[in-house]
From TrEMBL:
Transmembrane spans: none
Family: Belongs to the CvfB family.
Biased composition (Low complexity): 297-316
Coiled coil start-end: none
Protein name, per record: S1 RNA-binding domain-containing protein
Domain S1 motif as annotated: residue spans: 155-220
Species for this entry: Paenibacillus solisilvae
Record-linked SUPFAM superfamilies: Nucleic acid-binding proteins
Region (Disordered), start-end ranges: 287-316
Pfam families recorded: CvfB_1st, CvfB_2nd, S1_2, WHD_CvfB
Amino acid sequence: MTLIPGTIQKLKLAREVSPYGYFLTDGESEVLMHYTEIVGHRPKVGEEYDVFIFFDSEDRIAATMKTPLIMLGEVARLAVADIHPRIGAFLEMGLGRQLLLPLSEQPELKELRPKRGDEVHVILAQDKIGRLVAKVAFEEELAEVAFRVPESWHNTWVEGWVTKTLKIGSFVMIDGGVLGFGAYGFIPADERTRLLRLGERVRARVTFVREDGRANLSMNHLKQVGRLEDSDRILEYLRERPGGAMPYSDETQADIIKQKFGISKGAFKRAVGKLMREGLVMQEGSWTKLRPEAQPGAEAADAGIEAADGQAGLKE
């Protein structure tokens, strides 16, 4: 038998070597299990134990009775415990030590890389010299562990973790709860309210359950709901602006609207259109402005005028 890092193997306890720990053997090779790696009762020489094989901090092969969160070749979602700007992200793997997710496995853009606390779907693999490393799990690996999205999820809000993010959109493993590993979904770029990091927790609405069992997702509300929220936000923004005016209108480019308000140009036009129909705003060229009656303090001024008229009527 060969001692394979990343796997659990049944080995016989050969001898104790104080002050280090125990040597275990498969009959051909030996591996050290430090005292700190013991779980439960003190092991006995001659007995067999299931141990996980790994590399210690000095790149020496070692054994532990602790159970890892991931095994060689398996897919698991691991939390980011620490970040090294030149090496990569370190993931918690349940052994009191961390697993490296190299920079080469992460997005090229720094803002799309995972942060501390994010959770990344990875596969446990070995590098060129046999050390254990994490590799990002992609569509083909995740499809094998994902379940089909139920039809009942249509138009419901779900949460999950970003597994891959591109210009065209972001792939998400939707939290399956008690149902299992998760379900696979996709947020198109025009349905994102912002760029999403690898491993980021995201909340989205299921817009369509596809025949292949996956879901199309959106971070936006339904149009009738979103229009109300968007128009309220734009109205509030205008009321905080000098003169109640902003240099954004139907003529403004979509990417500028997205950057400023976090919504699509279509959503912006619907929201402004609602405010125009209500007589609250008007557009002049590339500007959108509050009407005088919608200006801050206008209601108070009207109330003051009415009160003054009332007083004048009493005097007469």
